[in-house]
Amino acid sequence: MIQVRFAGLGGQGILLMGEILGEASVIEKKYVGQASSYGAEARGSACNSDVVISDSWIDYPEVTEADVLACMSQGTYEQNKTKVNASSGIIFFDSQMVKPDPASSLKHIPVPATEKALTELGNRMVANMVLLGAVVKALNLVTEESLRQALTSRVPPSLLKLNIKALALGFELGRIREI
Amino acid sequence: MPIQRKKIKSSLAPGWYFMQGDEACAEGAIAAGCRFYAGYPITPASEVMIRMVQRLADIDGVFIQMEDEIGSISSVIGASWAGAKAMTATSGPGISLMTEAVGYAVITETPCVIVDVQRAGPSTGQATRPAQGDIMQVKWGPHGDNEIVALAPWSVQEMYALTIKAFNYAERFRLPAFIMADEAVGHLRETLVVKEEVEVWDRYKAPGLPPFGTEERNGVPPMPSFGEGANLLVTGSTHDSWGFRKTADPAVQARLTERLVLKVRDFKDEVIETESYFLDDAEVGVLAYGFTARAALQAVKRLRNQGMKAGLLRLISIWPFADEAIIKLGKKCRVIFVPEMNRGQVAGELKKYTTTPIISLPKTNGEVIEPGEIVEGIRRNMA
């Protein structure tokens, strides 16, 4: 079983990251629990999107201690860094949005998601898919194909090409990260 | 009762789905034969409504967004009398508005399903946050004695399966049946496995027999629909077996109120459903329901690993209440802990059935109860 938490601000597409990873895992016949928490505001409030993936029935489907935290804002990084497994947890962070805590002994992996989304795709809105691609590839959570399939069922056709490019960019970044 | 039970092909293709609880609830309704939905949007139940719009459009059903929750439940009652299986979904504030009409559905013996995706209250409270604060409200909200059915799903799979059962019980007993979900399970996305067939119960029809009375004290009469040729009177006032108002006749009032209660109480075992985990040798009991029971299950496993003989009784049905299971649990355990996202509603109910000490572990900060908190709460009290 693996517990993954995506965290960031409303509007960054945090909830969608969890949904797509969850869907991709079900495509691979896994048991998945995916829960989100968010404020009443449409934009700007702190959001978490949790994905628990297992080969069998999951007793408690929310993250109790994250194996993986992928973070896109400073505030939610501060809130969640203590909820990561102290011995084996990994934190992925958007290097333009989060300044990691130098005192933390956890493994931190910078991902230039927002930067790459802007410079290579000209649209920061798909930074979430860059980060998702990087996390999934680095940890081999699901196959690229399952993730693309899940994305296709959840993104409007007009934005699909852009999002698939962003995922591919993330896969590339994930491939070169050392875990 | 000669209710028609049949297996039909599932409306969703068999297979694995990644689905949200609210959506699975709507799919359960469609599978059970629901063809009328009226509602008013409210967080965290709106996704039920959104899914119902899409699905009912596909299959020639009727969907209406009403002006409010009073209109919603009233049109659901009307649709049921027109012969449709009908549903609405809301949250606590909507249940408050629907309460008068729920009493009307009880006395007119109208099958319908009401989904309550509970959120933190009282009043508007915290719209996006979970709670289990409506347990007593759905039972005791309307005036007079109300027997209703209420089921508490703990997973997306049960949002689907228990919604089908709620429709079946609504038809079997001719009453409003509630799904007591909460924000956590309503918005949870999980693996949903859909099988080939579902069991669906259809309304008991017997033209010529009275629609509001039976020979037995605890019977469920057949239910004609408008348009089938019966001369139908449907009233919230006390009525005789043919529906004629009898508002000052003690015998009619006594017979009706007794039957409305006994038709459920005498057959409660058909509805009551519980699950036991590690209870065989348990000394420390935990009783939980809905999403909280999943935290409780993990808490019990952790306590077992730490050497404590803990066990879990999960309520799948809330109303009618699992009295005999509680009596047994009380005999087995020295103490019973009840974690719930309210200030002890079910913990209090347990005290009717056992003298074993009951310790409430309430949480009402708008967040779910985590396994670690239950472990800690039990450890603190057992020290």
Description:
Chain A has one domain (2-176): Pyruvate-ferredoxin Oxidoreductase, domain 3. The longest helix of chain A has 20 residues, at 157-176. In chain A, strands 2-3-1-4-5-6 form a 6-stranded mixed beta sheet, sandwiched between helices. Chain A has 179 residues and is an alpha/beta fold. Chain A is built from 6 helices and 6 strands, in the order E-H-E-E-E-H-E-E-H-H-H-H. In chain A, a hairpin with an 8-residue loop joins strand 2 and strand 3. In chain A, helix 1 (14-27) packs across helix 5 (144-154) and helix 3 crosses helix 6. Chain B is of the alpha/beta class. Chain B has 2 domains: 4-202, Rossmann fold (3-Layer(aba) Sandwich), CATH 3.40.50.970; 275-382, Rossmann fold (3-Layer(aba) Sandwich). Chain B contains 12 helices and 17 strands. In chain B, the strands form 4 sheets. In chain B, strands 3, 4, 5, 6, 7, 8, 9 and 15 form an 8-stranded mixed beta sheet that branches. In chain B, strands 12-14-13-16-17 form a 5-stranded mixed beta sheet, with helices on both faces. In chain B, a hairpin with a 5-residue loop joins strand 6 (112-120) and strand 7. The longest helix of chain B has 18 residues, at 156-173. The model of chain B has no long low-confidence stretch (mean pLDDT 97). Chain A binds chain B through residues 18-19, 22-23, 25-27, 29-40, 59-62, 64, 150, and chain B through 16-18, 43, 126-128, 155, 184, 187-191, 294-295, 297-298, 301, 368, 370-372.
